[in-house]
Amino acid sequence: MTSDAKMTVSAIVVTVLLFVMLISGGLVGCPYYKVWERKMAGQAELQYQQGARQALIAQAAAEDEASIKRAEAATRRVRGWADAAKRGCEDVGLTNDRACINQLLRDAATYSIAKEGHEGVIVSVGAPVSVAVQPQTGGRQE
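Above: the chain's sequence. Below: its structure in token form.
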């Protein structure tokens, strides 16, 4: 064999060996890559779920705070109705008249329901006073 032929055979052998090493390295490294890839996907999902959980906690806290504020506003509104009813009865000379105060509370609750569009509300100040109003639907009836 000539030296050129020996070099060609050596180059082919080296090329085949490199190719075999590359394929075997891929076969060995591929499972490790899949494990790493799954680990990274799991960590990303965990971070996403933690963020979603924190968002839900913040939303629940905001809803709790809003419901407390709505309850406080309703309490102030009912106290205002009660004070206005007492003053109204005093203005017409019926101081501490429960019937007068109850009627004015009913009127205030009815007005509030009609104004805000609620279907009904229960108002209780001192003696039980309850009002339930159904909104009118349709046009004017004559």
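Residues 124 and 136 are 24 Å apart (CA to CA).
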